[in-house]
């Protein structure tokens, strides 16, 4: 950390969001401390396939889609910068995504999404089942239509987290793992730092980036975050060469993601309100069934592991970003639900700008705590 007194920015949470905030704030010259209760990336960020689904999630037009597209663009811009600075390869791949349909109902939904994306000026190509199999020959014969989204990509989340944290440290940030934040230092209506399992950390601004558990801390300030976990179980297989190239999705929102090292990640269940990250037999069965129905060759893939992560969801489905009225010195950066990795870079830019008293790079009014509370959507 650059010398000269207490931290300007204390970041609570060492996942993709927290590490990105630390990276961008330190890069702008701020004195930064990042506090992580366990190890970097030990929460949801370490348990994700890492898709950069600006379009693959089929988010309808609106502020969240705009943020997601900006988020994807920012990943493109940062990939080389991070690798050159840190020597860590965040594992970017830009091979697109393929959404698939297997019957009339799922084809109709896909066709609607196609029309909306084209209206937004996005690249999205409608394919018949045979055209989809030309693109991805291992795709099941059951697939009757596809939507190819050439601009989506993917990254390796644990490596991205490490690259952002190393980059932050190279810009002078101090990274403290195994340091649990227990509360806030408060004077008047101002947050002036945090208390931790290893002593107090005074700071000009505290950024709360603790994923699904951020409400436990914010509650101490009377800031009630309508946040809940949506557990996602995933499994990983080894198959080389990979039978697929793009991120391939089925009609029920399961996906298969080929990593550069020969692993194929299959995700993910959606289990709202479940705080337990452990893997269930039912979860593995559901994922195996989805993967092998979509890409039958995966039946021969070697099972290499499974895990669960907790997506931090909000009542509006949008992240909550920025200040909280009545609590100067506090910034929120959580609630990214299915889009934590995708939105990590843009969130880091937004929150670091706010922490340093600068204009954020995009309008954050749809993501403010106030609009989350009223449930007001554009
Ligand atoms: N981003 C995909 C998921 O949350 O499952």
UniProtKB/TrEMBL annotation:
EC number of the protein: 1.4.3.19
Keywords per UniProt: Oxidoreductase, Thiamine biosynthesis
Enzyme class: oxidoreductase
TM ranges: none
Keyword Oxidoreductase: yes
GO molecular function, one term: flavin adenine dinucleotide binding
A Pfam family: DAO
Pathways per UniProt: Cofactor biosynthesis; thiamine diphosphate biosynthesis
Catalyzed chemical reaction(s): glycine + O2 + H2O = glyoxylate + H2O2 + NH4(+)
Domain FAD dependent oxidoreductase as annotated: residue spans: 9-353
Biological-process GO terms, alphabetical: thiamine biosynthetic process; thiamine diphosphate biosynthetic process
Domain of life the protein comes from: Bacteria
A cellular component annotation (GO) from this entry: cytoplasm
NCBIfam families with a match to the protein in the record: thiamin_ThiO (TIGR02352)
Name listed for the protein in its UniProt record: glycine oxidase
């Amino acid at each position: 950390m650059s010398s000269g007194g207490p931290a300007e920015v204390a970041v609570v949470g060492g996942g993709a969001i927290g590490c990105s905030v630390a990276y961008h704030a330190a890069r702008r010259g701020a004195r930064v401390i990042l506090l992580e209760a366990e190890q970097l990336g030990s929460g949801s960020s370490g348990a994700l396939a890492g898709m950069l689904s600006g379009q693959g999630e089929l988010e309808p037009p609106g502020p969240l889609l705009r943020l997601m597209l900006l988020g994807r663009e920012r990943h493109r811009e940062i990939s080389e910068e991070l690798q050159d600075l840190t020597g860590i390869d965040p594992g970017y791949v830009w091979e697109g995504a393929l959404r698939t349909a297997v019957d009339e109902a799922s084809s109709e939904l896909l066709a609607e999404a196609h029309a909306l994306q084209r209206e937004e000026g996005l690249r999205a190509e409608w394919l018949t089942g045979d055209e989809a199999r030309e693109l991805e020959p291992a795709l099941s014969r059951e697939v009757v239509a596809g939507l190819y989204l050439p601009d989506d990509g993917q990254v390796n989340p644990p490596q991205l987290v490490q690259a952002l944290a190393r980059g932050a440290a190279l810009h002078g940030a101090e990274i403290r793992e195994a340091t649990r934040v227990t509360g806030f230092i408060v004077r008047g209506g101002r947050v002036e730092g945090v208390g931790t399992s290893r002593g107090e950390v005074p700071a000009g601004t505290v950024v709360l980036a603790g994923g699904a558990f951020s409400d436990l801390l914010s509650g101490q300030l009377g800031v009630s975050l309508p946040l809940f976990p949506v557990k996602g179980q995933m499994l990983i297989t080894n198959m080389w060469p990979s039978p697929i190239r793009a991120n391939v999705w089925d009609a029920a929102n399961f996906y298969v993601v080929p990593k550069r090292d020969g692993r194929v990640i299959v995700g993910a269940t959606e289990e709202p309100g479940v705080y337990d990250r452990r893997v269930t037999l039912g979860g593995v069965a559901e994922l195996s069934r989805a993967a092998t129905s979509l890409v039958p060759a995966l039946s021969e893939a070697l099972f290499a592991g499974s895990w669960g992560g907790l997506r931090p969801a909000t009542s509006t489905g949008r992240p909550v970003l920025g200040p909280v009225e009545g609590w100067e010195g506090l910034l929120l950066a959580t609630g990214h639900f299915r889009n934590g990795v995708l939105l990590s870079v843009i969130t880091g830019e937004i929150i670091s700008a706010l922490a340093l008293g600068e204009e954020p790079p995009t309008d954050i009014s749809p993501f403010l705590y106030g609009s989350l509370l009223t449930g007001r959507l554009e």
